[in-house]
Amino acid sequence: xxxxxxxxxxxxxxxxxxxxxxxxxxxxxxxxxxxxxxxxxxxxxxxxxxxxxxxxxxxxxxxxxxxxxxxxxxxxxxxxxxxxxxxxxxxxxxxxxxxxxxxxxxxxxxxxxxxxxxxxxxxxxxxxxxxxxxxxxxxxxxxxxxxxxxxxxxxxxxxxxxxxxxxxxxxxxxxxxxxxxxxxxxxxxxxxxxxxxxxxxxxxxxxxxxxxxxxxxxxxxxxxxxxxxxxxxxxxxxxxxxxxxxxxxxxxxxxxxxxxxxxxxxxxxxxxxxxxxxxxxxxxxxxxxxxxxxxxxxxxxxxxxxxxxxxxxxxxxxxxxxxxxxxxxxxxxxxxxxxxxxxxxxxxxxxxxxxxxxxxxxxxxxxxxxxxxxxxxxxxxxxxxxxxxxxxxxxxxxxxxxxxxxxxxxxxxxxxxxxxxxxxxxxxxxxxxxxxxxxxxxxxxxxxxxxxxx
Amino acid sequence: xxxxxxxxxxxxxxxxxxxxxxxxxxxxxxxxxxxxxxxxxxxxxxxxxxxxxxxxxxxxxxxxxxxxxxxxxxxxxxxxxxxxxxxxxxxxxxxxxxxxxxxxxxxxxxxx
Lengths: 454, 112
What we know:
The structure holds two protein chains of two kinds. By secondary structure, chain A is an alpha/beta fold. Chain A is built from 19 helices and eight strands. In chain A, strand 7 and strand 8 (282-288) form a beta hairpin. The radius of gyration of chain A is 43 Å and the shape is rod-shaped. Residues 1-14 and 295-316 of chain A have low confidence and may be disordered. Chain B has helices spanning 46-60, 88-105, and strands spanning 4-6, 30-33, 39-43, 63-67, 72-75, 80-82. Chain B has a six-stranded mixed sheet with strand order 1-6-5-4-2-3, with helices on one face. In chain B, a hairpin with a 4-residue loop joins strand 4 (63-67) and strand 5 (72-75). Chain A binds chain B through residues 29-30, 32, 37-39, 79, 124-125, 128-129, 132, 134-136, 151, 154-161, 181-182, 184-188, 190-191, and chain B through 1, 27-28, 40-41, 44-48, 50-52, 54-55, 58-59, 67, 88-89, 91-93, 95-96, 99, 102-103, 108-112.
């Protein structure tokens, strides 16, 4: 290196030797490609320069046509020197291309961690725009950084400008920014949302959080698609946003579990779509929200005799919806077949079989339902009543129906809270009354308080 | 957000029009293609792809970014054109382009 006056015109930067000289601070200006945009606090540096002068030479380009030396390295020293009132400083005049200037600035400043993240990102973008064919892998070798360092800074360029600024302020870490940028394929709104989630949460693993966010979105989309499909094909759909009334749903399942699936296009039929937290995240099931439509009293008896061996469901036109009629006919046929079966087996009547079936149903209903039924049926000690006690003396079809109704009501009571506002229960009590059952005082009072009767 | 212009068919040079855009399993990958059909960067990060795309955009005035589900966006300095404007990743680069424009018009934070 020689110490001379700097040359003004340099045609080929590669062939000219760097020169050390003393230059006037007023003849220097920051290079526009310098990645550093913020100077920070210069007080300490100015105090040091005032005491000791500038010890390390600045690096500048040869003077341009106006005699201005553009500063490659030493911009803070230049500003602090002006602040300290220094006029002349040592400088190395070194010819460099624009790419070399950016690389030098990026390498020097980022190694000292002086640059903000957005300055580093802007410098990388500028460098890539100046140097053709510069891939991330080549770039990291040029500036002496790892590939992951470069890739992280390139990845965050897709973030909204608000969050790129947040990287500088430390609100969002570079790891969080890079993880958030991996959700760019979901759209700008999701980028914003996930950055919002990650901001300020340094304790959280960003990669894990982003994976969770993507999975949540996938499940939400699945649910939305399943809901759209069901809405397109069913007249009544209950979803997480519009849940089915709980009591109605339970009554529907209780009184007619098969019927809930057998009358798809009728007004009482509803489909429930629920988001769940496992699998595909969606559960779809049928319910009946109006059990009155399945009142056993409405089932007619078949006029003709049935033959179980040859009985088949007749073919019917597809456009006729007769699911209720078909169900009635099926039950009537089964009822008739049961009676025929009992008679041919010697002495078993329909009441006996019904009694047997009812016994198993009552046993399955549970102890609370039995106690409730015993209360309704007027037993003196309902707490001690057993299934046998309930069925004792119930020899006719009407008596068995009363027992069945009371047990069903007990089961309903167990599944939901008895309430004066439960119209389904009141309707069912009305049905029981029409079969000859006499309500006790409290139930009669509840029925008398029905608002629609007043 | 920048308006995404819908065009009849958006195909990167050297590619063929596709009838069906098959959904990708997991995170898609992106390829930056210049007007000569040269593929510059294959990456899973849209940010990396857009950094490379901006360089090609400065050099040639236009660039294509193709995703692994065969959707494609044609980017020039004024607009983003595609035949699948509803794709979220295309919405993201449109928003990113809009912000780049705004950023260039912001006063520079240089201290002299």
